From TrEMBL:
Claim: Transmembrane is one of the keywords in the record: yes
Protein name: Spore germination protein
Transmembrane segments: 284-308, 380-398, 410-435
Keywords: Membrane, Transmembrane, Transmembrane helix
Principal location listed in the UniProt entry: membrane
Superkingdom of origin: Bacteria
Gene Ontology terms describing biological process: spore germination
GO CC annotation terms, alphabetical: plasma membrane
């Protein structure tokens, strides 16, 4: 085997600016070789941290050394790899090198370069969902590889109508983003809107799907998320069949779903694996829990500050005895506990898992008991705060749960100012904001505003599957019929 002496990039190649910039990196390797049969001298350059060395040795270098290789035109004949490109522009070469390609140069061809794909794939194995946990149903979650995520979706929707469009966003990160929809079902106006918003993105580095949520949302100043993020491939496949659009970001284990509505954030995908009566009960329970979490502390402050006459006499004595040694007004007492709960929750989330659980449990018990014994808070408010914190955890979507946590503080402020009137005033402001809010141009409060009776079948309650023959009306799908309701009724058990 005839090997040429390994040289530096500057010795064997022309000192071009783009080559010099690449050569500054320690992981950029460049080696010279000679073909045994034709004596053609060539150079292989690549980033060692991005390419698979086994592919370089077995799939690229070995054929180039032993085969009948004369020029770039023979490249696809001698190398048994699929992605082989002939490039002549520095920008394209730089892009390929940074994406795990091997650069091939021949001394006799100075203006043509070969780029051979040999990317090293580092992908973690599939794991169960960590946020959207379900007792029944599939136990697969998305990973950071876009190709793997697309495979999980296509395996659930093996149809040619599933269209995947790819975009590259970020002047520095060059992040790949895939937009998925089903042709013939999804409204093309929605697809064009997503496509245009992604093309208009001007940002240097996109490292996660959360960036896309904030950039392409209809109202980026709203605390409410207008795109639903999920880590479940089965949920993405289900909403695509409804006529929605999914966005997959390379490097992110979460997919984005749009357009969406307010009630979608309180629907766990496990609801579809349960009986419709049980699923509807759980949805109503979540809505009640969220309302309780937001309003219970402001109601406590409003009643004790302005409207103590509405407290029943049997309960009044308990409240008076619990607050007889508390030196603070109700609003400061409530703020103290609310901030304490948020501190414990944030500390538990940032610390390692085992330590975080211990801090949350022990810290809550110790601080709560000590604050009551010290006379800083009443035991009644402590119970209400604990129940409110527990109720806020029932939200299936994490980002909506964060919004619910924040909403308590403006309600608390207005309750201190004007009592129950302040709570009603704050609720009116919130309702007006939600009415104006849209997701991809579609009403966020649908089906309640504007009222659409046909879409109520999958909102606060979930009707049986046999009554879900029509896709959601607000999506304006090209094919609104999911299945024939008449044929479904005909296929009953013989004993019926």
């Amino acid at each position: 085997m005839k090997w040429l002496k390994r040289k530096s990039v500057d010795e064997g190649m022309e000192k071009k600016d783009w080559i010099q910039t690449l050569a500054k990196s320690k992981d950029f390797k460049s080696s010279y070789y000679c073909n045994q049969k034709t004596n053609v001298q060539f150079c292989l350059s690549f980033f060692s941290t991005l390419v698979d060395e086994e592919i370089v040795q077995q799939g690229i270098l070995s054929p180039l050394l032993r085969s009948d290789f004369h020029s770039m035109d023979d490249l696809k004949k001698v190398i048994p790899l699929e992605d082989i490109q002939i490039c002549d522009t520095p920008s394209k070469i730089e892009e390929n090198l940074c994406n795990g390609f091997v650069l091939l140069t021949i001394e006799t061809e100075e203006e043509r370069y070969g780029c051979i794909a040999a990317k090293k794939e580092i992908v973690r194995s599939l794991t169960p969902p960590e946020v959207e946990i379900s007792v029944v149903g599939p136990k697969e979650a998305f990973v950071e590889s876009m190709e793997t995520n697309l495979n999980l979706i296509r395996s659930r929707l093996p149809i040619k109508e599933l269209i995947v469009e790819e975009f590259t966003i970020g002047s520095l990160s060059k992040t790949k983003i895939a937009v998925l929809h089903i042709e013939g079902i999804t409204n093309q106006e929605n697809v064009n809107t997503v496509r245009q918003r992604l093309k208009d993105v001007e940002y240097d580095a996109i490292t996660d799907s959360s960036y896309i949520v904030q950039i392409i949302s209809d109202n980026s100043n709203s605390p409410f998320p207008q795109l639903l993020d999920t880590e479940r491939p089965d949920r993405v496949a289900a909403v695509l069949s409804e006529g929605k659009i999914a966005i997959i970001v390379d490097g992110s284990p979460h997919a984005l779903i749009t357009p969406t509505t307010f009630v979608n954030f309180f629907s766990a995908f496990e609801d579809y694996f349960l009986n419709w009566i049980i699923a509807s009960f759980f949805r109503l329970l979540r809505v009640f829990a969220v309302s309780f979490s937001v309003l219970v502390t402001p109601l406590y402050v409003a009643v004790l500050t302005y409207h103590y006459e509405i407290i029943p006499h049997d309960l009044l004595g308990t409240l008076i005895s619990s607050r007889r040694i508390v030196p603070f007004p109700p609003v400061l007492e409530a703020l103290f506990l609310e901030v304490t709960i948020e501190l414990l929750r944030e500390a538990g989330a940032r610390l390692p898992t085992k330590v975080g659980q211990t801090i949350g449990i022990v810290g809550g018990i110790v601080i709560g008991t000590a604050s009551v014994e010290a006379g800083l808070t009443s035991n009644v408010l402590l119970i209400l705060i604990a129940l409110a914190a527990l109720a806020s955890f029932t939200t299936p979507i994490y980002k909506m749960g964060n919004t619910i946590r924040v909403l308590r503080f403006p309600f608390l402020f207005f309750a201190h100012l004007w009592g129950l009137i302040g709570i009603v005033f704050c609720f009116c402001i919130l309702l007006a904001h939600l009415i104006r809010l849209t997701s991809l141009g579609r009403p966020f409060l649908e089906p309640f505003y504007p009222p659409r009776v046909i879409d109520l079948k999958d909102s606060l309650i979930r009707v049986p599957f046999k009554n879900s023959a029509i896709r959601p009306e607000f999506l304006r799908t090209e094919n609104p019929i999911r299945f024939s309701k008449k044929k479904a009724k005909m296929k009953k058990d013989i004993e019926e």
